[in-house]
Amino acid sequence: MRRTVLFALMLMALLSFTAMAQRGEVNYTPKQTEFRTITLPQAQAVTLRLYEAGLGGKAYKTVKMKGKKSADHTLWSATVKGNLNGKFYTFEVTQGGKKLGECAGVFARAVGVNGQRGAVIDFAATNPDGWSRDVRPAIAWSDLVLYEMHHRDFSIDPSGGFAHPGKFLALTEPRALRHLQELGVNAVHILPSFDYASVDETRLDTPQYNWGYDPVNYNVPEGGYSTDPYRPEVRVREFKQMVKALHDAGIKVILDVVYNHTFDIAGSNFQKMMPDYFYRKTADGNYSNGSGCGNETASEREFVRAYIVESVKYWVEEYHIDGFRFDLMGVHDIATMNAVRRELPSDIFIYGEGWSAGGCAIPNEELGMKANISRMPGIAAFSDEIRDGLRGPWDGDDKAAFLGRVKGNEESVKYGIVGGIKHPQVDLKKVNYTDEAWATEPTQLIAYVSCHDDMCLVDRLKASIPGITTDELIRLDLLAQTAVFTSQGVPFMLSGEEMLRDKKGVHNSYNSPDDINHLDWNNLTKYPQVMAYYKGLIALRKHHPAFHMGNAQEIVNKLEFIESTDLTVAYKLKNHAGGDSWNTIYVVLNANTEPRVLAVDDGHYTIVCCDGVIDENGLETIDGTQVIIPAQSALIMHD
Ligand code: CA
Question: Is residue 1 predicted with pLDDT exceeding 60?
Fold first, then answer.
């Protein structure tokens, strides 16, 4: 009986919290605005302050909020008469006789400059033309081609000719949309675009750069990417304009979300509203640091889990977001990731980094680690197996692998090619980082060779292959991406690789200046063969379901590896794999500096990819029982 009552009370608390998260902390009408927030039950008071500006000046009104206390939380509310559109507010909690400092609360949906104060805006007025008709493009997970980008990298350099360099709006410009469409990617994964701390929005005329993995307000777009961070409705509208323009171009928008840690503890909204509730501690009472950024959130706690679930749902509902990339997913517990999956529409694509950056305060078996992906159906993880099998291990930029002719990496590349599922011809004992096939379905593996972290592909090739020539660099770049884009997993590329970007050898460019991080659009004309190849490769994948069968059993049945010499990986896709119009397709990756000969079934073949050139209609035809694969390149042909 007592347990039932206790359970009912806990459920009520969760329902209150969820309702709060769903409605937000501001209920605006032109006649009055109701403010709400939630604290731990030990909070003694919450003060609401209203301001004319998002920063500076004194509160023009101070209101004591009314608390409704329950067993494990207190709901606070206050109603202020009059039209508050355009005003700003803060909450301040008093707990243990101490004032914890003003903040925008944890549920703010609009904020002033630098996210220090919440803002009252009329959300209905933030929708761009046609927003009510905007829908998420229908693209199956197995058909996705992901393009990871940073707003500033992409459009800041004058060579790009953007009217809104470094802003959300750059992605509404024809220049950007044409490029993405021409390349053929169908989902942009935008690096943190919620409000983060490390760019000072009050001095945007000074160049400032950060990736943005330092969250402040989780449910508000970043002000630094808007044309006016002082006017809270502008970033909301411009973010929606960006989503709409991309959707109109048939491109999905995937948000990089960073719920695993906050910029700091003391200054965070979580800490100021619900001290210590959102953070894990170690057995000795210190804050645990599984994120490597000084703290880790406690997703296993009911309010934190509900917070994450409601936050992603909010981005889907208000901003029409198509998917989420969970930063350090290995810091979150499995139950939370499964709750996120369950609560989001089934077309939303979810993937994450299946690792943490340090030990967490709960056991690895309970965390969203790559090894536990089979317990998280419908969620994908990055494959460091194929990445490092191609470019070399993460612990040394000068170390090479398959691309740099280090033997013994073939099996790791093969593991990525099958999409991480159990395949009888992949010898897991020889795969670099796993002894188990961790993906149940190929759409649970993200295939890639580079991302914003670590060196980009060009820099890594230069660092790991001393004396590499530009010709060799290009050959190996194209070879690497052929492995990625013919993988049965979900292919992923770092923005700018298609224009042979480099970051001047900088390994961790999270706060490097523009001249390190920017894309140089002149490279498109300097290295036209690179863009042409990427474009051809992506088109080939999209037009041929054999390269993305999307089903583990079909891959086992139809993808057959062929015995080949060292530093080559060869396989065929047979019997109209995945319903393909081509009967048999051969794919051969040759990392050797000499041509290699491969024995094939006697037949008449059309070569569509050879020696760094792709033409889906055929480059040449051959007959017989063998094919020659030129040095450091890929060959694809069909019968
Ligand atoms: Ca910010």
Answer: no
